[in-house]
Design goal:
The complex is a heterodimer of chains A (about 200) and B (about 190). Chain A is mainly β and about 200 residues long. Helix content of chain A is about 10%, strand content about 30%. In chain A, the strands form three sheets. Chain A has an eight-stranded mixed beta sheet, with no helix packed on it. A seven-stranded parallel beta sheet of chain A has the order 1-3-6-9-12-15-18, with no helix packed on it. Chain A is globular and about 50 Å long. Chain B has about 190 residues and is mostly beta strands. Chain B is about 0% helix and about 35% strand. Chain B contains no helices and 22 strands. In chain B, the strands form four sheets. In chain B, strands 2-4-7-10-15-18-21-22 form an eight-stranded mixed beta sheet, with no helix packed on it. In chain B, strands 1-3-6-9-14-17-20 form a seven-stranded parallel beta sheet, with no helix packed on it. Chain B starts with 18 loop residues before the first strand and ends in a 6-residue tail after the last strand. The chains are: A mainly beta (about 200), B mainly beta (about 190).
Chain lengths: ~200, ~190
């Protein structure tokens, strides 16, 4: 393997080679170049990382042309697969563990007839512009949230400050600050603070 | 010990010195040790004729210790611990399984002042994971601290286990519950 290619894998690569609509705070560390392989945002900015954000091997930013992801200071993204069509905001000091998926859209229609049309216009040689419009709802993960191994966070989720999302949970709704969530569908097992 | 490299490896790093790879065992790459920080005399011990395939990672803190038996297969599991993880002989660990003794595990990292901070979350205690002989862990299952999988048991795909599962038992779900007993065949 060539030295150049290797740097993209072990975190010694040049962060300045990122697209111009990616803004990094001081002290950010991103292990692999491959994290940006599916970054297609044309918004400016399309990705904003605060200070000292640590991003490990398994994280990917899969961002559609109209998408924006923001991550606050001192957050650690271990294995967070972002699928972003609109807006995903992650607060400060957030910890996201291995094999987590965070999506702000279903990326396909619920209606069967629409979905058939989607399948046809999504074929390898088809005109993707014929696809039905994506319905997205932003995802907000507030400060000091921990997201456990393998959790899935779906469109419209708003996870309050300091909440704990248990390993393997699935969450697509509003979670009060300080609450603890477990299971699929995610059930609040400790209520946290009252949510106004 | 000399600096050992795997003959087929694309990743240029040697295996860490405190890793023992048994006879006829296969490891896909030294990339598996990308976040490995174990300072134990033997941080990872792999028995004979075991296969560790693409996507397997040993994210070990300084006190982390992993023992894998003979004839085991790991098809890409992430093991994250600053304690002890044991996988018994003949066990099969499927795709995208995570074995970690903290619920939002992190790989170990160098702390702000160049001091090594431990795997897992700050303040968490590593309670270890134990998998008995001939167990089968299904795809995307998660084994957390305190998980003890009995000999011959099966953990269904996507299940979450953080407690003791008796031998020869099938468990599924999050949290996992027993759904079937498997009678061991008489010798």
């Amino acid at each position: 393997m060539k030295r150049e290619d290797l740097r993209g894998i072990i975190g010694a690569w040049d962060l300045k080679t990122l697209p111009p609509n990616v803004r990094l705070g001081e002290g950010c560390w991103i292990e692999r170049r491959a994290t940006f392989e599916r970054f297609r945002s044309v918004r400016n900015p399309g990705l904003v990382l605060g200070k000292n954000v640590w991003i490990y091997t398994w994280t990917t930013f899969n961002v559609e042309p109209g998408g924006l992801i923001e991550v606050g200071d001192d957050s650690v993204l271990v294995g967070s697969v972002f699928m972003c069509a609109d807006h995903i905001r992650v607060g400060k000091r957030v910890v996201i563990s291995y094999n987590v998926t965070i999506a702000d859209s279903d990326f396909h229609p619920l209606d069967p007839e629409e979905r058939r049309r989607d399948a046809v216009s999504n074929a390898p040689d088809a005109d993707k512009n014929d696809r039905p419009r994506l319905v997205s709802r932003p995802v907000v993960i507030e400060d000091d949230v921990w997201i456990g191994i393998g959790a899935i966070i779906l469109r419209g989720a708003r996870i309050g400050r300091g909440a704990r999302i248990g390993a393997g949970s699935v969450v697509g709704s509003r979670i009060p600050a300080g609450a603890k969530v477990k299971g699929n569908p995610g059930i609040i097992i400790e209520p946290g603070e009252t949510d106004g | 010990m000399t600096r050992r490299k795997l003959a087929h490896d694309w990743f240029p790093e040697p295996l860490p010195e405190n890793v023992v790879l048994g006879e006829r065992s296969w490891l896909y790459s030294s990339f598996a040790f990308r976040h490995y920080r174990s300072l134990r005399p033997v941080g990872v011990r792999i028995g004979r004729s075991s296969g560790l395939y693409n996507g397997t990672f040993f994210d070990l803190g300084p006190q982390g210790e992993v023992t894998i038996g003979d004839y085991c297969t790991l098809v890409g599991a992430i093991i994250s611990t600053d304690g002890r993880v044991v996988i018994g002989d003949y066990s099969f660990i499927s795709h995208e399984v995570v074995i970690a003794d903290s619920f939002a595990a992190l790989p170990p990292r160098w702390g702000e002042r160049g001091v090594l901070s431990v795997a897992g979350l700050r303040g968490s205690v590593s309670t270890g994971v134990w998998i008995g002989e001939n167990a089968w862990i299904g795809a995307r299952a998660i084994l957390l601290g305190g998980a003890r999988i009995g000999q011959g048991s099966v953990v269904g795909a996507g299940s979450l286990v953080d407690s003791e599962i008796p031998p020869y038992t099938v468990v599924i779900g999050n949290p996992a519950r027993a759904v079937k007993r498997l009678r061991p065949r008489a010798q």
